[in-house]
């Protein structure tokens, strides 16, 4: 099981040393995410979608309300909630296999067990044979695949992804989206995916959560009932994209 | 044919030719324009002196090298032991940094050689007194670079570490912040070794150091004896050892898995 509950969550940023200057990044967010669900958070920049994801990860804290995973409140970072960052976050001093095995090392796995799991995940992200390479020897798309493998190797309940393909070119990005869906099919993780690309959200998600900016509120939640793999040229796809976009545009001033 | 040979060995031939030319010019100037080995010893004077100080009955060159390397190792060793942990603590714990920083900033601008009187009073005419001066010169670049490395650890590395189950200051320092700072620390050590080697000569000339050996110490002895060709020998040896230390260090760094870093510099 891996259901995420967000209740009456709010986050107000105050300037350090000066309580008076406050920005409401998130306001009264209520969201229930099912086990094995693929949810995309979309919204214009500044709508707090990354902040929401970071709070779920335990890297940031709400000023009101709560997040819980299977009924257990989130109180800080934990390997049960894996994260893939927007920037390249692989440790450049570690080989690819040691990057993927980092979480297992922290858990105290034996060398043999670690190697077995690392190989399995190298295989999953189609990077067999790159275990001994260093991150700087890999392309951007390959690095993000390693980042996904590194997060999954810990066998988290939820995979949190913060615009993981934002820095990639369009072609690589489309390829990565397909691969992510394959990985999701195989591993059946709950995925919460932040993006500002409506196209990406419609291609990937079971449900799209549209956030409005300043203060960040849930504007709408849209179910995507199209069969996968979705075809971008399909009229239903285009209609849905237009629908989501219209919601987003209303929120922009 | 000769053209091909030239192209092939250009990288070696050009510098070699330049060195030979410089030696010839040096010899000509010393011999025919200056004509006084006290003012400017010629190349051949220096070669002569080299054999005397190295292999002659009164020559102490190798014992001097040995002694100076001991001083150097003591100073650099101490500066690593102090500079790296202190830099880590200052870079990682904000409050510690705030408290300690003013003290560091007061001591840091004092030129290392100004410590010589106290080095001799505290440690006497021992290896430790010379080592102390080298330590004072070398510790700050190591400290500052360790500190800077730690302050500049990308936030995403720390967060990635935390999400992967690496929590607590000690494991984050050991697993994430330290390796991430290593390039900065290493370049600090390199700068320190250069400065330390300079301080060594000053410290020994001013009497710090144990016994009667040491490159700086006997460079000064030969000056007092007005044996300027021997002084030049010591100068060149000091330069060459400094260069060798740096080369060995760079080779070591390259060999021991810092390949990932070169791409990022």
How are the elements arranged and paired?
The complex is a heterodimer of chains A (253) and B (265).
Chain A: E1 4-15, E2 18-33, E3 38-42, H1 49-57, E4 64-69, E5 72-73, E6 81-84, H2 96-100, H3 102-107, H4 111-124, H5 140-153, E7 158-162, H6 170-187, E8 190-195, H7 198-204, E9 207-212, E10 217-223, H8 235-251
Parallel strand pairs in A: 3-8, 3-9, 6-7, 7-8
Antiparallel strand pairs in A: 1-2, 1-4, 4-5, 9-10
Helix pairs in contact in A: 4-5, 7-8
Chain B: H1 2-34, H2 43-55, H3 61-92, H4 94-107, H5 116-123, H6 127-151, H7 155-163, H8 169-205, H9 215-224, H10 228-255, H11 259-262
Helix pairs in contact in B: 2-10, 3-4, 3-6, 3-8, 3-9, 5-6, 6-8, 7-8, 8-9, 8-10, 9-10
Query: Into which percentage range does the β-strand content of chain A fall?
Result: 25-35%
Q: In the CATH scheme, what's the topology name of the largest domain in chain A?
A: Rossmann fold
What is the string of helix and strand elements of chain A?
EEEHEEEHHHHEHEHEEH
Q: Quote the average pLDDT of chain A.
A: 92
Q: Which class of chain B in CATH terms?
A: Mainly Alpha
**Low-pLDDT regions of chain B:** none
State the total count of DSSP E strands of chain A: 10
How many strands appear in the DSSP assignment of chain B?
0
**Rg of chain B from C-alpha positions?**
23 Å
CATH superfamily of chain B: MetI-like
Give a quick account of the main beta sheet of chain A: strands, pairing sense, barrel closure.
6 strands, mixed
CATH superfamily of the largest domain in chain A: P-loop containing nucleotide triphosphate hydrolases
Descriptive overview:
The complex is a heterodimer of chains A (253) and B (265). Chain A is α/β, with parallel strands linked by helices. In chain A, 36% of the residues lie in helices and 27% in strands. In chain A, the strands form 2 sheets. In chain A, strands 6-7-8-3-9-10 form a 6-stranded mixed β-sheet, sandwiched between helices. A 4-stranded antiparallel β-sheet of chain A has the order 2-1-4-5. Chain A starts with a strand and ends with a helix. Chain A folds into 2 domains: 1-74 and 158-167 and 190-253, 3-Layer(aba) Sandwich (Rossmann fold), CATH 3.40.50; 81-155, no CATH class. Chain B has 265 residues and is an all-alpha fold. Chain B has a single domain, classed as MetI-like (MetI-like fold). Chain B has 11 helices and no strands. Chain B has helices spanning 2-34, 43-55, 61-92, 94-107, 116-123, 127-151, 155-163, 169-205, 215-224, 228-255, 259-262. In chain B, helix 5 packs across helix 6, helix 7 (155-163) packs across helix 8 (169-205) and helix 9 (215-224) runs antiparallel to helix 10 (228-255). Chain B is flat. The mean pLDDT of chain B is 92. Chain A binds chain B through residues 57-59, 76-79, 81-83, 85, 87-89, 91-94, 102-103, 106-107, 134-136, 150-151, 154, and chain B through 154, 156-157, 159-167, 171, 175-176, 179-180, 182, 258-261, 263-264.
């Amino acid at each position: 099981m891996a259901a995420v509950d967000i209740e009456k969550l709010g986050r107000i940023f105050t300037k350090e040393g000066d309580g008076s200057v406050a920005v409401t990044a998130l306001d009264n967010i209520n969201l229930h995410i099912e086990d094995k669900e693929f949810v995309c958070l979309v919204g214009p920049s500044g709508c707090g979608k990354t902040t929401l994801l970071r709070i779920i990860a335990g890297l940031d804290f709400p000023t009101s309300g709560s997040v819980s995973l299977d009924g257990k409140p989130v109180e800080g970072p934990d390997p049960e909630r894996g994260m893939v960052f927007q920037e390249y976050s692989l440790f450049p001093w570690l080989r690819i296999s040691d990057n993927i095995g980092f979480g297992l090392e922290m858990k105290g796995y034996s060398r043999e067990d670690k190697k077995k799991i690392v190989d399995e995940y190298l295989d999953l992200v189609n990077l067999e044979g790159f275990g001994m390479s260093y991150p700087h020897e890999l392309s951007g798309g390959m690095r993000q695949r390693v980042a996904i493998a590194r997060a999954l190797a810990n066998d988290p309940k939820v995979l949190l992804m913060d615009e993981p393909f934002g820095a990639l070119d369009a072609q690589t990005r489309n390829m990565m989206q397909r691969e992510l869906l394959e990985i999701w099919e195989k591993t059946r993780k709950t995925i919460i995916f932040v993006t500002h690309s409506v196209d990406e959200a419609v291609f990937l998600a079971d449900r799209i959560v549209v956030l409005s900016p300043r203060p960040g509120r849930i504007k709408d939640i849209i179910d995507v009932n199209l069969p996968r793999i979705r075809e971008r040229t399909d009229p239903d796809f285009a209609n849905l994209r237009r629908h989501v976009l219209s919601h987003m545009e209303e929120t922009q001033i | 044919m000769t053209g091909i040979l030239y192209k092939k060995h250009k990288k070696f031939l050009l510098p070699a030719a330049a060195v030979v030319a410089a030696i010839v010019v040096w010899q000509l100037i010393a011999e025919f324009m200056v004509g006084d080995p006290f003012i400017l010893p010629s190349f051949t004077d220096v070669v002569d002196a080299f054999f005397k100080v190295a292999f002659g009955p009164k020559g102490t060159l190798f014992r001097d090298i040995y002694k100076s390397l001991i001083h150097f190792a003591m100073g650099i060793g101490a500066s690593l032991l102090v500079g790296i942990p202190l830099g880590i603590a200052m870079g990682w714990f904000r409050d510690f940094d705030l408290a300690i920083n003013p003290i560091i900033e007061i001591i840091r601008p004092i030129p290392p050689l100004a410590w010589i009187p106290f080095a001799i009073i505290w440690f006497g005419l021992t290896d430790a007194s010379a080592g102390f001066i080298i330590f004072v010169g070398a510790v700050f670049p190591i400290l500052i670079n360790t500190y800077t490395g730690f302050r500049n650890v990308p936030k995403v590395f720390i967060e990635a570490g935390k999400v992967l189950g690496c929590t607590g200051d000690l494991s984050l320092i050991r697993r994430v912040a330290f390796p991430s700072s290593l390039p900065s620390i290493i370049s600090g050590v390199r700068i320190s070794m250069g400065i330390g080697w300079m301080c060594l000569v000053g410290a020994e000339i001013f009497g710090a150091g144990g016994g009667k050996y040491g490159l700086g110490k006997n460079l000064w002895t030969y000056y007092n004896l007005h044996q300027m060709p021997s002084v030049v020998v010591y100068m060149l040896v000091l330069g060459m050892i400094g260069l060798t230390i740096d080369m060995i260090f760079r080779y070591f760094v390259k060999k021991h898995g810092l390949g990932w870093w070169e791409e990022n510099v």
